[in-house]
Amino acid sequence: MNTTPLAGAKSPFPGRLILEGQVDQVMKILVINCGSSSLKYQLFDMDNESVLAKGLVERIGIEGSQIKHTKTGMDAVVNQTPIPDHKVAIKLVLDALTDKQHGVLSSLSELSAVGHRVVHGGEDFASSVKLDAKVMEAVKRCVPLAPLHNPANIMGIEAVTAALPNIPQVGVFDTAFHQTMPPHAFIYGVPYGYYEKYKVRRYGFHGTSHFFVSRRAAEMLGQPIEKLKIVTCHLGNGSSITAVDGGKSIDTSMGFTPLAGVLMGTRSGDVDPALLPFIANMEKLSVAELDSLLNKKSGLLGVSGISSDLRDIESAAGKGDKRAKLAEDILNYDVKKYIGAYAAAMGGIDALVFTAGVGENSASTRAAVCEGLEFLGIKIDAQKNDMRGKEMEISAAGSKVHVLVIPTNEELMIARDTKRLAF
Ligand code: ADP
């Protein structure tokens, strides 16, 4: 922040600060999602939660790097330039946001705060948090739990700190929402000492999305979240199902890592753990090769041999490809089983939510998952279900359970938490 809020001054407008000289300034929040070689960003005007600009930096540290920037309402512009590290990436993002032609900020002083997606918060973070040196130490302690993701998130935070040393920053963790799970849901049946020594337990992921859609479901139904039993199905390239009882996550299908649960694009989901030593022996695979097999060569891709993208699988299955149809069937069956399990875990179900790429767009997945669940009170209307990408209730008249499609918006959720915690 370049300007200091007047002592004791409170804005009459939510989302606005009253700044020095009584200038009423709209709050603009930058949301950053850093991967090891990519960086996604969105700039929000929190006055009306609209997106002013967004973009993607790709191939950081690799040949062929570029930034693609889109000012809302205009065509995307692409700048192909060497981007050796995250510091340079952040500089390019800030330059794009303040660019005379394609930018949306007259100067960086208009930026109020930055929110970061952080994948793993371990047991240290049960909610989002304003970042400072002590918090960063804890985030670094979580690196062994997410060795591919947390280091990239940390690089993003440090790059912003270097470019804008005084800007408030907030971390929003994928794991935080699931910290309400009871021990019987998160402790694995292995010697307890591994939990104490290595923090081996179920953490769960996609928490920001499960939180967002469960709250939105309660709003759509006009009921308090505390009274609802909701199963949220985040089905994308990575997929997870969560039991949200009274607003709290009480169980979720991903585990110690995002490999567990239902079949995914390239990830196996749940398998018999004894499969691992068996395959390693038969195929003479190292631990690293086994890890890569289960994370990158399994799932829809591994079963079908065609693609990790459900659109390709649906198209191949439609043309009669048996393994594509089998891959689709496994996914639908896995999701159905988790819905049944979580209805049992919560002692009932009031609402079922579909979200993310597959959940929002694939009518056939939603139909196949819900088929046969009438005994639980789940019945969808085929005509209402015949749509994609829209927020709507698709349950049939008389369905005891409300079946909802809710586009997820993790970036907005991060912007909201940043606004709440940054100042
Ligand atoms: P990520 O987990 O990477 O965020 P997304 O949530 O974007 O992924 O979901 C990507 C998945 O959504 C892909 O498998 C893609 O095939 C699927 N998808 C997107 N649009 C459709 C569609 N119209 N029909 C079926 N599947 C779709």
CATH-wise, what's the superfamily of the largest domain? ATPase, nucleotide binding domain
Helix content: 25-40%
Quickly name the level 1 CATH class of the largest domain: Alpha Beta
Instruction: Please tell me the CATH architecture of the largest domain by its name.
Output: 2-Layer Sandwich
Tell me about the biggest sheet? 8 strands, mixed
Q: Beta-strand level of the residues, as a percent range?
A: 15-25%
Low-confidence stretches: 1-24
SS content category:
alpha+beta
Present as ligands are:
adenosine-5'-diphosphate
Number of domains: 2
Main-sheet strand order equals 7-6-5-4-3-8-10-9
The average pLDDT value, as a whole number, equals 93
Spatial gap, N to C terminus: 10 Å
Query: What fold name goes in the CATH topology slot of the largest domain?
Result: Nucleotidyltransferase, domain 5
* Rg over C-alpha atoms, rounded to the nearest angstrom: 22 Å
Number of helices: 15
Shape: globular
Describe what this molecule looks like in 3D:
The protein has helices at residues 86-98, 133-141, 150-163, 183-186, 193-198, 207-221, 275-283, 287-296, 299-304, 310-318, 322-346, 356-361, 363-370, 382-385, 410-421; strands at residues 16-19, 23-26, 28-34, 39-45, 50-58, 66-71, 77-80, 111-118, 129-130, 169-173, 229-235, 239-245, 248-252, 351-355, 392-393, 402-405. An eight-stranded mixed beta sheet has the order 7-6-5-4-3-8-10-9, with helices on both faces. It has a six-stranded mixed beta sheet with strand order 13-12-11-14-16-15, sandwiched between helices. The chain has a two-stranded antiparallel ribbon with strand order 1-2. The longest helix has 25 residues, at 322-346. 35% of the residues lie in helices and 20% in strands. The protein starts with 15 loop residues before the first strand and ends with a helix. Mean pLDDT is 93; it is low at 1-24. The protein is α+β, with helices and mostly antiparallel strands. Helix 10 crosses helix 11 (322-346) and helix 11 crosses helix 13. The protein has two domains: 28-173, ATPase, nucleotide binding domain (Nucleotidyltransferase, domain 5, 2-Layer Sandwich); 222-410, Nucleotidyltransferase, domain 5. Bound molecules: adenosine-5'-diphosphate. Adenosine-5'-diphosphate is lined by residues 236-238, 265, 309-311, 314, 356-358, 361-362, 388.
